[in-house]
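Section 3.1: Structural characterization of target chains.
Under the original work plan, the team committed to producing a structural model for every single-chain target entering the pipeline before any wet-lab resources were allocated. The record below documents one such target. The sequence was received from the expression subgroup and is listed exactly as submitted; it comprises 107 residues.
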Amino acid sequence: MPGRRCAGSERAHGGVPSRVVAHYAWALWLAGPVVATALAAVWTWWRGRPAKVPGPKRAMAEHHAYLEALRQTAVATGDARHDERKAAAQARRSPSVPRQARSTVTR
């Protein structure tokens, strides 16, 4: 039959003509970045939504916790502060390295 072509010459994958695939190849290359941008936009919108307004019971509980935190002292006073600094300095010093004498040279 002279007018008949080979089965694979006109059709590419899954029965789609190869000229259609070639015609829309730009769309396949563009689909990845477009989908990624759309997902990033949706994720950004979702994360940027304002927080829900708490109910009265939860709001009062959070307010009482805030007031309790204000009642506690934030800074240690007196010798306790000195002891904390000394303990922190000792924690930083390596026990395997012997302590060296300080230089007495002054400028």
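The mean pLDDT is 76.
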